[in-house]
Amino acid sequence: MKTEWRIFGGVAAFLLVACGVYAWWTWYELGALEWIGTMALLLSFGLTGMCAWYFWVVSRRIEPRPEDRPEAEISEGAGEIGFFSPGSYVPFALGLSCAAVGIGLALQQWWLVIGGFIAIAIASAAFVFEYYTGTRRSATQ
Questions:
Q1: pTM score
Q2: CA nearest 126: which of 83, 88, 98?
């Protein structure tokens, strides 16, 4: 996690410097502070700063991973990483649902927005239960 917090910390530092430069530049050129861009950069700094802080805290609590140790061998990172779906239509359905909401908002078609949110809820539930095999079910079922 050391790598992650350093990356996010670097991006956060860049955004803070860019926010200061942007605020100074707009004040110098326009004679007034341009609030939208300044706040966008400041909020982006806050978001990446929170991510960096989280990764920093986690990196102190767990043992260093092979990715964090310079003396680690490549073989230490081998093995099962996790389960990845070999093929699923649920992401496509979720993408279509989000597209329906976006199109509905753009065209102010509220029936499409509501239908899209219902489809998002169904697709999200499908994600949760896609590989649920029922190992916690009782033997009588």
A1: 0.59
A2: 88
